[in-house]
Amino acid sequence: MTTALRSILLTPNLLGKDGVSALSREVSRALPAPSLVLSLHDSSVAGDSSADLELHGARGSRVRFLADVARAMPRVTPDTVVVCTHLHLAPAARALAWRGQRATIILCGIEAWVSVRPAERWAIAGGEVVAISQHTVDRFKAANPALASTDVIVCHPGLPAKSPSQGAWPTTLEFSTYPTALIVARMSAAERYKGHDALLDVWPRLLSRHPDAVLAIAGDGDDRPRLEARAAALGITHAVRFLGRVDDDRLDQLYRACRLFVMPSRDEGFGLVFLEAMRAGKPCIGGRGAASEIIEHGVTGLIVDPDSRHELTAALERLYSEPDTCRQFGEAGRERFQSSFTNDSFQTRFTKAIGRRTLVTLAASMP
Predict the structure, then answer these.
(1) pLDDT digits (tens, 9 = 90+) for 236-246
(2) In CA terms, which of 109, 212, 258, 360 is 20 to 30 Å from 87?
């Protein structure tokens, strides 16, 4: 006999290191069991430790993914909750919700900042919409004026309250004694908006006032050789560390050893890296947009115009020159994380959002 499902999650990836994967994992924990996760790119077909969650991975094949969707349809009941964590999967989610509740579509960022395709518009019209930031809502509606009246609930993501190393302080770290600024972001030609170039541009001036300042860059990508060449041309290779990809424990050590976290990104849908830094008690510098929904300017960090080298330089110089301010921002950031951005906080917000949709659906169906 086919087991009925209480919830189904459609996601590009559940087991990856990217932000959508992290969000998908948090969503999967908030959904009622038994649940099924249909992943486009994962290769696994397994259950987790609770045995209440099935994972079917299509290994990047859209045909296999749609076949998994079709096989799941007989397991849908009128009470089944269907959620997808990428707009491009929304049509499959609406089809899957054929006899259950209206599908919930989560807008994560740049995929929703362009004109939606007809199939996605159809899915949005028949589903419920949640976004990870108000910035994403604003960009979505600006790109889709015909959908400006769409009701979108903002539900900020969260992270586990404890970091991977669970409080262990690194005993050795090559720059732990230096006043280090950390950025964690992919270095790809498609993601130059993250702010690496801006940081390299302002670093010579910062060094003129703070000769020991170090910029640590965690992450990798096809744009790394260009950025390394740019650092060399600027004469700052002695003050810039390209660390490449790092595992979770190493990343936690980097957060805890740095003086501050900085990512002056122009096009961030949310920014889980800011939460990671705040969890470690570090002040943050971010670009206007979604980061301003995380960082309280002048309280937990500083918000700058990502296109202004002057504002970025001023923010860095302030945090390098005012260690007490750095500490106060970091402590306030940790408190803000603990009160608003843990995974428990997210699951409470998301469960309420799903619950609200259920009540609206039930009310609409009453005579």
Answers:
(1) 999 999 999 99
(2) 360
